[in-house]
């Protein structure tokens, strides 16, 4: 699914990721934890190809393709999805129009026909109810005036509509109350299957009670310093990140 | 017909000659009410006395009137004797909005070159009177207001074309909503420029549109004015003046759509007096012709009045759009909020001059003015100028004018969902103005405008901003 090999990457001239390697197989859920500034969000942005996130060396292959030559939208159409930590508000562009354009682009890439407006409307309404988002949110500007929880649910709705093969959740739990967290987690869990992989980036262990990972990695100083199973997350919760940093040093 | 290039001042002379000829023709018919004759004479006198603006004239600094040369030999389109003929010939009208005049749940009145087309129009509803058919009572309302609202601010050069409109007036529409009455249906007024010169010998046409809206105390109404061309390709000059009087606690939604085609030049103005606790909610859009100059002159005359005006302008090719808005805060406790957004592409130019004048007595004023522009080509030009004059000390006044770029984060967000950079830029550029369209109170107008404009953005990249993006090379559908 995803193969990261000795990745070095910089943002604004400052190297953030150092020799990072990670292999994710179909159906696996990997949690990436780490203190602030460890490079967690950078990894997501490098994977999606955001401007300004520059790969210095190393390779990333996604579904057997070298990501280096693929634009942001091509990676998305290929099945990569990043749920943003801070979803962007776009007044003037309706959520419905945005979602349809995204789904059309993905379907076209997969060689499928575009959905009719009617069929899409129905699909979007059904999906919004799965994440407990009132259908009226479809008519509003993208994320415009949405609360923090509504924005995150809108992200999960997009994920459900696009049916990606690799979902990267960037601190999706930040700023969520426990009810919203459960809605988001059950949305994610409903999408888990033997083909689809997840990278769950989080600062806290709490989310991993709801989305149980197969692997947990600790990112510190731009590299993976420890890997383990879900028990590692509990250990981190109990002991903090400090002991790891001293262990590594 | 002369082929030599003559200075623009000739239009000044020629306009007066037209007015004189018009007056003479109407005098022979011997049925013009005195107030109309007086208005025409006053207009002609004022117009003759006012110097023709040059580049040094502040109000016309960025807009050359050279374009008016085309109309020096213009056919006079609004002479009453041709009116009867037009009512049987006119329509259907193709418009810049891609259909005939809008169909909506409203009373529809269609004016062709300033003259009511009765076949295309609904019956005149209660409260609507043509100037030419005014009786003693409505004549008095007209006489009391017409030319007086537009003349209530002493700024002759700002009102140059209002004077000319006065001089040329031979008909017009009065909407009078009596005390406490709510106009049941919105009033939709289509002003069509026929470009109806003889096919064999095309000629420029000149049309004078005049609307007077008088809202008595506690009344309420919705009015849509829609200016459309005929796609005839004939040059036409439209001078359209709307005067609005809002009595105490009266409310008006006023939408003015300027959608004429390329061959047309439009000079228009809305003059508005707001009395105590009245509310005005306006929307205006200018799209599609080589010259548009639109003035909003808004006067707060009674405390507690509330004004909101949203505006959108789109200029491409070599078009010029010039909005001048002025708000006179003369009295305390009034509010005004103006939001204007424009997109300028190709070699087009736009001007936005927003003046807020807060007089000494206008304490507790809340005034906001915001103007944002997207420039989509290096050759496009915007001259934006907020102008504040504040003489009261206890007021809140915010203003801002910016030349914006598309939001890089928003572009990234759309692309990260598989949307091509090209399509993302179309969506965001259209979204830039669509935000204001969403505030329109009439669903039919909102839908028609959205549909028309989103198609325009998809078809012509002149209005789509490339600025603010420096991403990956184009993908396949990008190049297509």
Supply database-style keywords.
heterodimer, A: about 250 residues, alpha/beta, six-stranded mixed sheet, four-stranded antiparallel sheet, about 40% helix, globular, B: about 475 residues, ten-stranded mixed sheet, 9 helices, 20 strands, about 35% strand, disordered C terminus
Notes on the protein architecture:
The complex is a heterodimer of chains A (249) and B (480). By secondary structure, chain A is α/β, with parallel strands linked by helices. Chain A contains nine helices and twelve strands. Chain A has a six-stranded mixed β-sheet with strand order 6-9-10-3-11-12, sandwiched between helices. Chain A has a four-stranded antiparallel β-sheet with strand order 2-1-4-5. By secondary structure, chain B is an alpha/beta fold. In chain B, the strands form two sheets. In chain B, strands 1, 4, 5, 7, 9, 11, 13, 15, 17 and 19 form a ten-stranded mixed β-sheet that branches. A ten-stranded mixed β-sheet of chain B has the order 3-2-6-8-10-12-14-16-18-20, covered by helices on one side. In chain B, helix 2 runs antiparallel to helix 5, helix 6 crosses helix 7 and helix 7 packs antiparallel against helix 8. Chain B starts with 8 loop residues before the first helix and ends with a helix. The N terminus and C terminus of chain B are likely disordered. At the A-B interface, helix 2, strand 7, helix 3 and strand 8 of A face helix 6 and helix 7 of B.
């Amino acid at each position: 699914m995803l193969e990261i090999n000795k990745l070095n990457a910089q943002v604004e001239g400052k190297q953030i990721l150092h020799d990072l390697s990670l292999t994710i197989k179909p159906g696996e859920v990997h949690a990436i934890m780490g203190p602030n500034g460890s490079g967690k969000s950078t990894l997501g942005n490098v994977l999606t190809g955001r401007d300004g996130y520059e790969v210095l060396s190393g390779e990333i292959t996604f579904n057997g393709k070298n990501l280096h030559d693929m634009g942001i939208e091509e990676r998305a159409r290929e099945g990569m999805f990043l749920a943003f930590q801070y979803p962007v508000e776009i007044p003037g562009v309706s959520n419905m129009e945005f979602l349809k354009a995204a789904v059309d682009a993905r379907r076209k890439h997969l060689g499928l026909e575009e959905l009719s407006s009617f069929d899409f409307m129905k699909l979007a309404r059904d999906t919004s109810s799965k994440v407990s988002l009132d259908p009226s949110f479809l008519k509003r500007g993208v994320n415009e005036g949405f609360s923090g929880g509504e924005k995150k649910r809108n992200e999960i709705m997009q994920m459900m509509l696009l049916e990606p093969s690799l979902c990267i959740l960037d601190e999706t739990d930040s700023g969520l109350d426990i009810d919203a967290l459960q809605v988001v987690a059950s949305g994610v869990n409903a999408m888990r299957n033997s083909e689809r992989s997840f990278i769950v980036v989080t600062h806290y262990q709490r989310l991993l009670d709801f989305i149980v990972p197969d692997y947990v990695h600790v990112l510190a100083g731009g590299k993976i310093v420890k890997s383990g199973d879900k028990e590692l997350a509990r250990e981190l919760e109990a002991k903090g990140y400090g002991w790891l940093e001293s262990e590594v040093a | 017909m002369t082929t030599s290039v003559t200075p623009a001042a000739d239009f000044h002379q020629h306009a007066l000659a037209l007015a004189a000829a018009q007056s003479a023709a109407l005098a022979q018919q011997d049925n013009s009410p005195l107030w109309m004759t007086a208005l025409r004479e006053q207009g002609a006198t004022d117009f003759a006395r006012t110097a023709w603006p040059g580049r040094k004239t502040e109000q016309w600094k960025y807009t050359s009137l050279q374009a008016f040369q085309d109309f020096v030999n213009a056919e006079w389109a609004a002479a009453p004797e041709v009116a009867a003929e037009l009512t049987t010939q006119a329509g259907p009208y193709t418009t810049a909005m891609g259909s005939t005049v809008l169909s909506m749940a409203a009373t529809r009145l269609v004016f062709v070159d300033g003259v009511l087309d009765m076949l295309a129009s609904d019956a005149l509803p209660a409260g609507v009177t043509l100037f030419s058919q005014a009786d003693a009572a409505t004549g008095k309302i007209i006489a009391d207001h017409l030319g007086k609202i537009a003349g209530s601010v002493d700024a002759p050069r700002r009102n140059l074309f209002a004077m000319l409109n006065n001089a040329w007036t031979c008909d017009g529409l009065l909407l009078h909503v009596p005390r406490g009455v709510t106009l049941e249906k919105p009033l939709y007024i289509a002003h069509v420029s026929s470009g109806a010169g003889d096919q064999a010998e095309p000629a420029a046409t000149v049309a004078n549109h005049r609307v007077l809206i008088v809202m008595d105390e506690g009344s309420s109404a919705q009015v849509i004015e829609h200016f459309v061309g005929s796609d005839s390709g004939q040059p036409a000059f439209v001078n359209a003046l709307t005067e609005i009087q809002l009595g105490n606690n009266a409310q008006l939604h006023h939408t003015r759509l300027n959608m004429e085609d390329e061959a047309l030049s439009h000079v228009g103005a809305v003059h508005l007096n707001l009395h105590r606790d009245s509310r005005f909610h306006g929307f205006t859009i200018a799209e599609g012709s080589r010259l548009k100059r639109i003035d909003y002159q808004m006067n707060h005359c009674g405390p507690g009045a509330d004004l909101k005006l949203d505006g959108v302008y789109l200029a491409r090719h070599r078009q010029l759009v010039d909005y001048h808005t002025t708000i006179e805060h003369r009295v305390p406790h009034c509010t005004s909020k103006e939001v204007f957004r424009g997109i300028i592409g190709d070699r087009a130019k736009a001007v936005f001059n927003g003046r807020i004048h807060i007089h000494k007595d206008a304490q507790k004023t809340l005034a906001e003015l915001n103007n944002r522009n997207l420039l989509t080509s290096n050759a496009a030009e915007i001259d934006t100028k907020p102008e504040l004059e504040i003489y009261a000390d206890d007021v809140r006044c915010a203003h801002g004018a910016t030349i914006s770029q598309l939001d890089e984060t928003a572009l990234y967000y759309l692309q990260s969902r598989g949307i091509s950079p090209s399509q993302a830029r179309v969506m965001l550029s259209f979204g830039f103005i669509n935000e204001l369209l969403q505030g329109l109170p009439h669903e039919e107008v909102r839908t028609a405008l959205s549909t028309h404009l989103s198609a325009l953005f998809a078809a012509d990249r002149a209005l789509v901003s490339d600025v603010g993006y420096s991403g990956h090379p184009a993908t396949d559908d990008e190049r297509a």
